[in-house]
Amino acid sequence: MARAGRLRALEERLRRTIPLTGAMAVQVTEWDDEGLRLRAPLAPNSNHHGTLFGGAASALAILTGWSLVHLRLGELGLDPDLVIQRSAMEFEVPARGEVEAMAIAPDPSRWDRFLRALDRWGRARIEIRVELWAEGSRIATLRGAYVALTPPV
Amino acid sequence: MARAGRLRALEERLRRTIPLTGAMAVQVTEWDDEGLRLRAPLAPNSNHHGTLFGGAASALAILTGWSLVHLRLGELGLDPDLVIQRSAMEFEVPARGEVEAMAIAPDPSRWDRFLRALDRWGRARIEIRVELWAEGSRIATLRGAYVALTPPV
Question: In this structure, what CATH number is given to the domain that contains residue B144?
Fold first, then answer.
């Protein structure tokens, strides 16, 4: 399946299985060798200041990192259980508009180590960096550690 | 205002100003000297495994820590801008039921330092620990750093 088809399948899967992605109006927008981009409008994700609610920012960032690893594994025909284990987020400036989340593709050597560990042990961890941008400024950064686990056959 | 009234006012404020709290069906349940408890059902906050979506867990924890600081300041007649600056979360086990978030009251000496700094500089930071529990087990822990900022008069 080409990447465009995988993106549509991902968005459909998120909407069907994670109700909050509907409430947040998350859209899957772009995937290339640099990473994966998701987008969310401000209104359903805003707070009492009329800026982006920190909890929504965190949810969007966690979801974007997860989605990148899920897509990359899917390209290889792999679909292990994939969960977030740890996250650290810096909230840099308030966001006053639509938010774009960018999960940055890990460099090839880290990705290969992750795949080898998953193949060998049935369990592997990878850290993904996700940046959130709004109106031309970076507004937050997440480092998320995701664990993939191949269920026993 | 008694604490019960402040809790109801908080829930009403969250629902009115942070749309995602409605989508998550967050309830403000209890506040005492140990801390503040919020609760959310699993269904609107679940993922493709039928367990709690990590993004929803993170949003609930960030909200609970914010709410505790907001309530404690409100008791003193203070209502500064209050935002999350940094968060670190450990996802320990999957949650398969309703989730309770407990923001743990900071010890008095840390709280007093926070108040003194806010009074003196108009800006202060405090770290709050939030635990998430489901079906009798702790499922995740957040450390959130919140910044209070008194706008210039």
Answer: 3.10.129.10
Give pLDDT tens digits for A15-41: 999 999 999 999 999 999 999 999 999
Q: Which of residues 8-27 of B touch A (CB under 8 A)?
A: 13, 17-20, 23-24
Please indicate whether, in this complex, the C-beta atoms of A17 and B47 are within 8 angstroms of each other. yes
- Report which secondary-structure segment, H or E, holds B21: helix B19-23
Give chain A's domain count: 1
Say if residue B110's pLDDT is above 90.
yes
When pLDDT is cut at 50, 70 and 90, the band that residue B2 belongs to is: confident
Has residue A153 got a pLDDT over 90? no
Q: Dump pLDDT digits (tens) for B130-141.
A: 999 999 999 999
Inter-residue contact B3 to B17 (CB < 8 Å):
no
Under an 8 A CB cutoff, do B20 and A45 touch? yes
Of B18, B54, B83, the CB nearest to A62: B54
Rounded CA-CA distance B145/B139 in Å is 20
Closest CA to A20 of B136, B123, B9, B40: B40
Read off the pLDDT of each residue in A87-99 and give the average, rounded to a whole number. Answer: 97
Alpha-carbon distances of A28 from A96, A113, B109, B110, B117, rounded to whole Å: 20, 27, 46, 43, 43
Instruction: Provide the residue range defining the domain that includes A76.
Output: 3-149
Give the integer Cα–Cα distance in Å for B60 and B103: 10
Q: Is A125 on the interface with B (CB under 8 A)?
A: no
Q: How is residue A38 written in tokens? A: 């998701």
Pairing of strands A35-40, A27-32: antiparallel
Q: Are residues A18 and A63 in contact, defined by beta-carbon separation less than 8 angstroms?
A: yes
